[in-house]
Amino acid sequence: MIRSVPAFIEGYGPVEPFAGAFARLGPATRRSVTRHPVRPGQGKLLPSIRAAIEACGLKDGATVSFHHHLRNGDDVLRAVMAEIAAMGFRDITVAATSLFPVHAPLADHIRNGVVSGISATYIRGPVADAIAAGALPTPAVLLTHGGRARAVEAGDIRIDVAFVAAPTADPYGNINGVQGKSACGTLGYPMVDARCADRVVAITDHLVPYPACPIDISQEDVDFVVPVDSIGDPQRIVSGITRVTTKPEGKAIAAMAAAVIDASGLLKDGFSFQMGAGGVSLAVADTLKTIMSERGIVGSFAAGGITGTLVEMLEAGLFRTLFDVQCFDLKAVDSYRRNPAHQSMSASQYGNPHACGAVVNQLDAMMLGAAEVDLDFNVNVTLGNNGVILGGSGGHSDTAAGAKLALVTTALATNTHPKIVERVSFVTTPGETIDAVVTEAGIAVNPLREDLRERLRDAGLPVVSIEELQHKASCCDGVTPPPPVNPAEGRILAVGQYRDGTVIDVIRANPG
């Protein structure tokens, strides 16, 4: 069951409620974009971020965008927003792809009235805390990776100026992410912004003579180029645990998840796969690597945020190609730099439900995490049981909707709270798109997938009901029911959009 949402939300507008994962897949249009021609002999190079802001004609109430390929090492958002604040602008909306602890100064810009709106696919750290504390005057909008791309292309998010952190750029605006001291690999997220924003500014710490080579974002979509000393620290792009789990319960979950994929009938030539960077996912990948090698299976592709583990599988001949929207570690950056089978993809190509086919639709199996899973298989990766915003969907909902087998792997409980609950505190990904939940105590299969349940039983795997998992989770040593969060009434702090633009849930302020 999905929670009901208001018909109108102050600071957000009219609400189209979520009606089902595939209920809103009719024909879609793309907004027209105004381009500003450059005359022969006219340059694009500007001396400072302030000069670029002035050249773009930024105004109060404008929307500016940023991307997160440098992740917790990014310094472009901080530098641009500091200049915007110093110039006296107010009521700016920040349409970031994701926000990390490094973006803490943005919380002060919220409190000072410089920023009045935020949208992102993932928010964690001081900015998330500021939103949860009610500092933002309008509800934050939480999207999926594919849903954000859809919204930008459709004009639901209209970007006045896109600021692109460019590891390499030439003076005419050609950009790549594989050269320079801040190389981050693919540039899948700003590709969409560069195509659709009214103005585009490349900010680079590695200016090269024209033409840059290779080119990921081309001069035809870039208005201005600003050289700076540093755009950030690429050493801090590393995501997740990046080490195979050594915990007994984690190893048990990983072994069971790999067995589910094997029993599903999907693990054969042409197999396609996506996983996260956490320890359990890496352990599953290790097991699949062994199985594929022993059986001579060659997969078609692995996708998503690419890790060194997937690079190793590509180089071992276990996949023909990688589709990469962002690099999760420096081994992936190096692979994209040198291996033509390691391909970039835009966020739209990755997960846009209104595109003419997204890569997620070609996935056989997807490994997903969870903060909570409920009896309807709804998954929460957004809101903690202490009311803190944990992050957000990212590609969670996109891949769950697209993959033939969407697996959630999770322990039954944390040290103090159950993770299999009667009802999640926030619906990030709807249960209809989740095929099975794998825990150390067994596997719960969605009733919509009776075919999968029979396959797993025939393989001798421990299939149990989701209700049984919930009961076991509540009986774990030291576990108590989590305190109530996200009440039915109260000021709305954030709006959760499903990938099709409908509202799937909201986060409300707790009373008191």
Automatic annotation (TrEMBL):
Keyword flag Lyase: yes
Catalyzed reaction equations: citrate = oxaloacetate + acetate; citrate + acetyl-CoA = (3S)-citryl-CoA + acetate
Record's keyword annotation contains Transferase: yes
Keywords: Cytoplasm, Lyase, Transferase
Subcellular location: Cytoplasm
Cellular component terms per the entry's GO annotation: ATP-independent citrate lyase complex; cytoplasm
GO BP of this protein: acetyl-CoA metabolic process
E.C. number(s) listed in UniProt: 2.8.3.10, 4.1.3.6
Any Pfam family: CitF
GO MF annotation, one: citrate CoA-transferase activity
Top-rank lineage group of the source organism: Bacteria
NCBIfam families (alphabetical): citF (TIGR01584)
Protein name listed in UniProt: Citrate lyase alpha chain
Species assigned in the record: Azospirillum griseum
Highest classification ranks of the organism: Bacteria, Pseudomonadati, Pseudomonadota, Alphaproteobacteria, Rhodospirillales
